[in-house]
Design goal:
The complex is a heterodimer of chains A (359) and B (579).
Chain A: E1 4-13, E2 16-26, E3 31-35, H1 42-50, E4 57-62, E5 65-68, E6 82-84, H2 96-106, H3 111-124, H4 140-152, E7 158-162, H5 170-187, E8 190-195, H6 198-204, E9 207-212, E10 215-220, H7 222-227, H8 232-237, E11 242-249, E12 252-255, E13 258-261, E14 274-279, E15 284-287, E16 297-308, E17 313-318, E18 326-330, E19 341-346, E20 352-354
Parallel strand pairs in A: 3-8, 3-9, 6-7, 7-8
Antiparallel strand pairs in A: 1-2, 1-4, 4-5, 9-10, 11-12, 11-14, 12-13, 14-20, 15-19, 16-17, 16-19, 17-18
Helix pairs in contact in A: 2-3, 2-4, 3-4, 4-5
Chain B: H1 3-20, H2 25-52, H3 63-69, H4 72-105, H5 111-123, H6 126-137, H7 143-152, H8 164-187, H9 192-200, H10 205-234, H11 237-243, H12 251-258, H13 265-291, H14 293-296, H15 313-340, H16 357-365, H17 369-399, H18 406-414, H19 421-432, H20 443-467, H21 472-479, H22 484-513, H23 516-521, H24 529-539, H25 542-567
């Protein structure tokens, strides 16, 4: 049975529908990210789970017990959850130890028990020697660790994180997302993590929920999400990609300027139906005409433009005269001059067939 | 389980769930709404009702309006108030804008001292300024006239404060800081790049100032001028001290005369209407003006700001600044201090003339002067606690949107801002002086009226402080198991402490010197210092008057200095709230 379950949950602010009938089940101990651009409804969803916002439709249940309905909503302080905020929300009038011990004191633990647990947690988040400091004397990363310790020490039913890394600089962000995953391995709290950064979501999560305009686009583990995106939005939001829009006719896929056999593709597109494919630039290969061809799909193209980035080449290749150009990422050793004629090799197993027409 | 049992179970579950999820903030909302209705709505409602009702039968009548506006003398007073307001506003702009520009944009020397003396002018109760100016420019014994006669041998007086223009200048000298505050606030965000842009296109220093900088801040100057206009027409003390001996009345002094025996509160209510309407209207216009597009452009990032080098002109500006500040602060304070310590103020500065007897008389011999000093400060403190408590509660509920219609509460809390003190006093009189409450002359009615009058200051400061708090701080308490009240007690209150001390002082200081509200509501045992001063002025003993005034001034200066230390140097010269 799932630990946290959202059933047909909507939230409207006046006339605008921020969250539109989403359903989601999260297992005990699972780490799930809500990923999407700003305004997609992910933070609203998180705040509904926390109890700060009441849904206008649907129910939210934890461990089979319904907490939120449009009629009534258990206040956040009675949900036994904890949360890490975008601003960290560390209380500047309390020391590190007081911040971390707050939730324990509220739960009525004795002073010595609070102290012991705070010490243990400060050790886990590596703040042991800063316990008497005030937040103003801490760096951004240290404040982040206080927030983590404060949220985890109470042994929460569900741990919620609202863009916790967006205020850190790039290096620290990478370090802290490793830290968050490490702590998850240690404690295995059921976790919901909101972010707009796909790298963060991929590095930390067991499963990712991609949201757009208040709806769920796809729920999958990071590998599936990248390699088998289901919609145009997901394919475009997670990493870079090339879209090919065409139609399936007589066992072949017809695109503007060229055609490819439909047979190697799974799932195989229906006859006569429109087709939308996502081709990652990394999975396209360029080779000289003399080299032996290996991939089942081959196109004869011409280099339009190239950018050298040190670690890789970015090529813009025209797959047929007048066709929309494809973006190809190639290793630094694969050098092709602008205007040169090249063969483009495509492995159909790496091509994602998207729901055509959506978005 | 039977169907009936299931339904009953569902119902019971529903009620339990409702109770479990019941939000007690709605009760707090109702309590605060009730208090605000008592303090703000009811007095205004009773004011209007009184002006339209026959006091005996309760029938609708326009007799009070006919009486109030049916006499030449009453109409003349209205006209005088209008001219007074316009003249004060115009003179305030002339006095303030060059100083504001000099302090904000140029390399004029002595800016620090200028700011301190401006703060001095700002915190001087206007009626104390008036008393000082009677000592300075009284037609016979006034210091300026004595010096003039001594220097020139002339018989005639140089200046006479007991004239319409004397009244205008004395009021302007204590109102111009409003224009200064508005103008510097705007000038402080005009970036030097805007001026550089004009320079690079070929405009000189003066052309830039008059064609670019001043037009940019014109809405702010007009906004400040409107505040001084409203300040001037609502002022009671100065027109009473200067205008009544000079035998002319303005609206406020006429209202006071309606209260001398026999008390005609109905006529006063009717006569107060133009003052109320003009104030509401002008504040509305002012808000529109300051919100206009041109002004919003100034609120962006200021960019770099360099002082303009004035060259020889700096001495002209410095001269203007110090002339104004001498007239507003230095000379008045000097003569007030001299008179307070003098046996007879007209005899000048000499050791033989020095005495402490005036203070001794006030504190130990006079039957109610010492009491009035104590009253002023206890009522001021009670007012500040009440206003801050109420203002903070409304601000927290409104900013955090804890209940629907929270905006109604904040509107009511800001409403007294557009009610002149004297009008509020008449409203309170009409609402709470008659039975069943019969609060006239009690400390309760004074504190309630003061708290209402200064509620907007308390609310605006509290709201700004609450807005500066990230709500996630409170969310963090709640998700960890603390209630809203725990969050307020453990996080909100400790973090707001300092801003609330500042807000407390901002209410306390004007509450200790409020005259017009107090004059209409205080009784023999609840007189405060301002009312005592007014009473003493009718006896004509200027030495006693000055001694009491000096005590008020010294205490005020000490409190402001504490605030200056604790909260920061600009804490009173900042633009307050929406004002």
């Amino acid at each position: 049975m799932s630990k946290l379950s959202l059933r047909e949950v909507s939230c409207a602010f006046g006339d605008t529908l921020a969250v539109d009938r989403i359903s989601l089940d999260i297992a005990e101990g699972e780490f799930v990210s809500l990923l999407g651009p700003s305004g997609c409804g992910k933070t609203t969803t998180l705040r509904m789970i926390a109890g700060f916002i009441r849904p206008t439709h649907g129910t939210i249940a934890v461990g089979g017990r319904v907490l939120s309905t449009p009629e009534s909503s258990l206040p956040p302080e009675r949900r036994g959850m904890s949360m890490i905020f975008q601003s960290y929300a560390i209380w500047p009038n309390m020391t590190v130890a007081e911040n971390v011990g707050f939730g324990l004191a509220i739960r009525g633990l004795g002073a010595s028990e609070v102290r012991a647990q705070v010490d243990r947690m400060l050790g886990v988040v590596r703040l042991g020697d800063l316990r008497e400091r005030y937040p103003a004397e801490l760096s951004g990363g240290q404040q982040q660790r206080v927030a983590l310790g404060r949220a985890m020490v109470v042994n929460p039913e569900v741990l919620l994180l609202d863009e916790p890394l967006s205020n850190l600089d790039a290096n620290l962000r990478e370090e802290m997302r490793g830290e968050i995953r490490r702590l998850h391995e240690e404690f295995r709290y059921t976790t919901v993590y909101v972010t707009h950064d796909q790298a963060e979501a991929m590095a930390t999560s067991d499963r990712i929920v991609v949201m757009n305009r208040g709806r769920i686009e796809q729920v999958a583990d990071p590998f599936t999400l990248y390699n088998r995106p289901r919609t145009r939005f997901v394919a475009g939001f997670i990493g870079r990609t090339n879209f090919l829009a065409g139609r399936c006719n007589g066992g072949a896929l017809h695109f503007a300027g060229f055609s490819l056999p439909a047979a190697p593709l799974t799932p195989r597109p229906e006859e006569g139906a429109p087709v939308l494919l996502s081709l990652r630039p990394q999975y396209l290969r360029l080779s000289g005409e003399a080299a032996p061809a290996t991939a089942p799909w081959r196109l004869q193209g011409r280099i339009l433009h190239r950018t050298y980035l040190g670690e890789q080449w970015d090529y813009l290749v025209e797959p047929a005269p007048g066709a929309a150009p494809l973006r190809v990422v190639a290793p630094p050793t694969a050098v092709h001059e602008v205007g040169a004629s090249v063969r483009i090799e495509i492995d159909p197993a790496q091509v994602a067939v998207l729901e055509a027409g959506a978005d | 389980m039977t169907l009936g049992g299931a339904v009953r179970g569902r119902l019971a579950g529903g009620i339990v769930a409702r109770l479990r999820h019941f939000d007690p903030t709605i009760l707090i909302w109702l309590a605060i709404a009730a208090v605000l209705i008592l303090l703000v709505v009811n007095p205004l409602f009773r004011l209007i009702l009184t002006s339209l009702q026959d006091p005996v039968t309760g029938a609708l009548t326009f007799d009070h309006y006919i009486y109030a506006y049916g006499r030449q003398r009453h109409l003349t007073a209205l006209l005088y108030s209008l001219w007074l307001g316009l003249a004060v506003a115009a003179i305030s702009v002339v006095l303030a804008v060059p100083i504001a520009w000099a302090v904000s944009r140029t390399d004029m020397p002595g800016k620090g001292a200028t700011r301190i003396l401006l703060l001095g002018a700002f915190i001087t109760p206007p009626y104390l300024g008036a008393i000082s100016w009677i000592l300075l420019a009284g037609p016979n014994a006034g210091w300026l006239n004595q010096v003039w006669r001594f220097l020139t041998g002339a018989e005639a007086a140089l200046v006479n404060v007991y004239t319409f223009w004397g009244l205008v200048i004395v009021i302007a000298l204590y109102s111009f800081p409003y224009v200064f505050i508005f103008t510097t606030a705007a000038l402080d965000v005009v970036s030097s790049e805007m001026e550089d842009a004009a320079n690079i296109l070929g405009a000189g220093k003066w052309q830039t100032t008059f064609r670019i900088t001043l037009p940019l801040v014109l809405p702010a100057i007009l906004g400040g001028a409107m505040v001084t206009f409203l300040e001037a027409i609502a002022l009671f003390g100065t027109p009473a001290l200067i205008g009544l001996p000079a035998r002319f009345t303005v609206v406020t002094t006429q209202l006071y005369q309606f209260f001398s025996h026999p008390v005609r509160v109905e006529a006063a209510a009717a006569y107060a209407m133009p003052l109320l309407l003009v104030t509401v209207l002008l504040f509305w216009v002012q808000q529109r003006l300051l919100r206009r597009k041109g002004f919003v452009a100034l609120t962006g990032k200021g960019g770099e700001r360099r002082p303009i080098r004035l060259g020889r002109w700096r001495w002209a500006l410095l001269g203007h600044t110090w002339l104004v500040l001498s007239l507003a602060v230095i000379l008045p304070y000097a003569v007030l201090a001299q008179a307070a310590f003098a046996k007879a103020w007209g005899q000048g500065f000499s050791f033989g003339n020095l005495t402490l007897a005036n203070f001794g008389y006030l504190l130990f011999e006079h039957q109610s002067a010492a009491r009035s000093v104590l009253n002023s400060f206890t009522y001021g403190a009670a007012t500040a606690f009440l206003a801050i408590g109420l203002g903070l509660a409304v601000a927290y509920i409104a900013v955090r949107r804890l209940v629907p219609f929270a905006r109604v509460l904040s509107f009511l809390a800001m409403a007294p801002f557009v009610i002149p003190g004297i009008v509020l006093a008449i409203g309170f009189y009409a609402a709470y002086a008659p039975p069943p409450l019969s609060l006239y002359g009690t400390s309760t009615i004074l504190i309630l009226a003061f708290a209402t009058r200064f509620l907007p200051i308390a609310y605006a400061n509290s709201a700004a402080a609450v807005r500066a708090l990230n709500p996630e701080m409170e969310d963090a308490v709640r998700i960890l198991g603390g209630t809203r009240m725990t969050a307020i007690r453990r996080v909100v209150a400790p973090l707001l402490k300092q801003s609330l001390v500042g807000a407390w002082l901002l209410v306390f200081i004007p509450a200790t010197r409020e005259l017009s509200t107090a004059l209409f509501l205080s009784g023999p045992n609840t007189r405060v210092m301002s009312v005592m001063l007014f009473d003493l002025s009718e006896e004509g003993k200027f030495e006693h008057l000055s001694a009491l005034g000096l005590m008020l001034l010294v205490v005020t200066v000490v409190i402001v200095a504490v605030g200056y230390r604790v909260i920061g140097r600009d804490f009173m010269l900042r633009q307050q709230g929406s004002g």
